[in-house]
Amino acid sequence: MDIERGKVTAIMGPSGTGKTTLLKLIGGQLKPDKGTVFVDGENVHQLSQSALYDLRRRTMGMLFQSGALLTDLTVYDNVAFPLREHTDLPEEAIHHLILLKLEAVGLRGARHLMPAELSGGMARRVALARAIALDPQMIMFDEPFTGQDPISMGVLVKLIHDMNQALGMTSVVVSHDVNETASISDYIYVISDGKVVQSGTPEELQHSESAWVKQFLDGDADGPVPFHYSAKSLIDDLMEGVESVKS
Amino acid sequence: MIVDKILNKLQQTGYKTLSRFSRVGRGSLFLWQVLFSLPYIIKRPGLLVRQLYYVGVQTLLIILVAGLFVGMVLALQAYIVLVDFGAEDSISLMVSLSILRELGPVFTGLLFAGRAGSALTAEIGLMKSTEQLSGMEMMAVDPMKYIIAPRFLAGVIAVPLLTSIFMAIAILGGYFVATEMLGIYEGVFWSQMQNNVDFYTDVINGMIKSLVFGFVVVWIAVFEGHDCMPTSEGLGQATTRTVVHGSLAVLGLDFILTALMFNV
């Protein structure tokens, strides 16, 4: 699997197929049983702890599904957090940067709120502002659209697209929201059970021959992925019940 | 059938034993990592001060109230026993020795496990389940240094301080009951204590105990938080384990330390 620099690459697949795991592998939070991950030419899992942290600081930002904002800090301090930790910038410069980052996600006016006071969509936007605070080369989005109302979803789609265009940031979007993701991505990998089932541009996938991919993209209830969880036949199950009641 | 059941039981026992051992291993490794992360606090003393406030200052009230009542009750009970032998003048001796050697460190350890230890576990566990710890890692900030180490050190510093406050207030409580309620002379109360309490064997040993208790309780608390299952059930279990294991560790270690310190 290759993720091209400066492009939006989507990783799609049903829940529980290892999409988030994949992001954690790229970020070096999990170690693979086999295989290698290279980020910016470096093998993530052979780096020392300090080199890994250095790589993360230089190249990666990640947007968690929950936002993962620090709950004891305000919106402002959350965005300031990576800047204060990793740079020696004076507080005025940090102040300007934060305002600009928050302006980009449209939440400059919400900077004094606590994370608990934000809606889910706003929390993700703050998390996005925080993720881009250090201008990473790559940003990973873990299910950015899940559980969002249509407006928030539209805002997030626009933001991810604009950030990519304006800042030339490599974006990796993990999602199972087919339409939103397809609308902004340059290339899509569809994975299932930890394997890449198909890959291509959104247009190529639309015309995919694979019944599985078709079912996934169209959201059909039954198909190669069965509606029923695997079990013996209903008749057998019923008869067995009758016999056990008799005895 | 019976063979199957026995085999099953054996298998379960083996599994449980193995997972216990692996927990102990993880806990020890965790402690190692925490100790290695401590130097980071020199760079960020503000983190430590904040945590000292949370685990130390906010535990102060319960320590003060508990200490006062323990000292008062102890004086009453001592009087009831001693007065039969005409030895009620030794009341201060009994109060101060039991407080300094045993009750001070043990009570503070237990109260700390219940008040601050459980809060630490719950806080860290919730941070884990809301991905705050992962989020920090991805922002290239090591949660071991930023979150765990300051809390650990704050606990280790706070418990001996809280213990000394507990001791002082308990002795004052005993003094109040003895002189105001039971009619012991003030001079007798203090001079008995002065003549018979040894700074090294009684006070210092008590403080060493409190240092050990603090270390163990706060280790258990931060480890349980960091190691918990990131679900509401897992968090509840971890918090309970902190209080139960922390309290048992305090009581068990107290026995061992007493046996070692007082050459019994």
Q: Could you give a quick summary of the protein structure above?
A:
The complex is a heterodimer of chains A (247) and B (264). Chain A is an alpha/beta fold.
Question: Could you list the spans of chain A in which at least 5 consecutive residues all have pLDDT below 50?
Answer: none
Give the helix level of chain A as a range of percent. Answer: 40-55%
Low-confidence stretches of chain B: none
Main sheet attributes: strand count, strand direction, barrel closure of chain B:
none
Beta percentage of chain B is under 5%
SS class of chain B: mainly alpha
User: Given the structure, what is the number of helices of chain B?
Assistant: 10
Q: What spatial order of strands do you see in the largest sheet of chain A?
A: 4-5-6-1-7-8
| Distance linking N and C termini of chain B | 53 Å
Secondary-structure element sequence of chain B?
HHHHHHHHHH
Q: What's the rounded overall pLDDT mean of chain B?
A: 93
Principal-axes shape call of chain A: globular
Tell me the number of strands of chain A: 8
- Determine the fraction of residues in helical runs of chain B and give it as a percent range: over 70%
Report the major sheet of chain A.
6 strands, mixed
- Gyration radius from CA atoms of chain A, angstroms: 21 Å
- Individual helix count of chain A: 10
Determine the structural class of chain A based on helices, strands and strand pairing: alpha/beta
Percent in strands of chain A: 5-15%
